[in-house]
Amino acid sequence: MASTAVQLLGFFLGLLGFAGTIVATLLPHWRSTAYMGSNIITATAYMKGLWMECVWHSTGIYQCELYRSLLALPPDLQAARALMVLSCISSILASLVAVMGMKCTHFAQRSVVKSPLVLSGGVGFLCAGLLCLVTVSWTTNDVIMDFYDPFLLSGMKYEIGLAVYLGYASSFLSVTGGLVLCWSSRERSQGRRHAQTHQPSAPPPPFNNINPPAPLYRPPEALKDNHAPSLCSLSSSGYRLNNYV
Questions:
Q1: Which of 85, 101, 178, 189 has the fewest CB atoms within 10 Å, i.e. the most exposed one?
Q2: Left, alpha or beta for 60 (phi > 0: left; psi -120 to 50: alpha)?
């Protein structure tokens, strides 16, 4: 029962990390306008994401435009897209494999493949969390380097957006869920090995009395006159006549 609860905990943590990764991938709030100088009241605010760029006006109008050309994007943005998509795909595959390997499901019930499936799901969530963590860390480093660059104009500087913080939280949840699933699969395999070690040996098979029983013990005196019957014996059954006289 405890192993099932641990598996459910790890699975739901991985699902939360997967949902957060999708939201962070789609949101345009990866880079937001940096408010610098004495005048912090601006009429517009710019935000950049992986798939679109948005402008927010002080009048309440919110406009977004998708990136038209993939080849025109900078290499770091293309790499961030690829890593986040791979993270989402890894989370989907990990969820499917973990569901099939959990104890509360009926797939391959009482089979030895249950524990490897849960382990594979945990590894998938770990990979998804690490891919997301690499992407948001890379973006954070780029934003900080540009912000403190003295040769860059203040209007071209950005701050870390909310989607990056959401990516950090999602990667933490995915990694935690993957570790919990891996630990639960290891605990289950050790329990199965312990049960096999302490399982009582099967009783020996019953003795099958196929051979005829041994002859009864007879004293030497009773065997002294036992000789091989001759052809001239008076008994047709092979016994000597003096045995009956």
A1: 85
A2: left
Name the residue range of residue 83's domain: 1-27+74-196
Q: What's the CATH code of the domain at 82? A: 1.20.140.150
In a domain, 113, yes or no: yes
pTM of the model: 0.72
> Which structure tokens are listed for 77?
């943005």
Contact 170, 133 (CB under 8 A): no
Q: What is the C-alpha to C-alpha distance for residues 10 and 183, in angstroms, rounded to an integer?
A: 9
Residue 41 lies inside a defined structural domain of this protein: no
User: What is the count of structural domains for the chain?
Assistant: 1
Within 34-176, strands assigned E span 44-48, 52-57, 62-66, 158-160
Which is higher by pLDDT, 174 or 221? 174
pLDDT tens readout for residues 72-99: 888 989 999 999 999 999 999 999 999 9
The owner of tokens 């405890």 is: 2
* Burial category of 236 from C-beta neighbours within 10 Å (exposed 0-12, middle 13-18, buried 19 and up): exposed
Does 100 reside within a domain?
yes
**Residue 150 included in any domain:** yes
For 114, the token pair is 């249950």
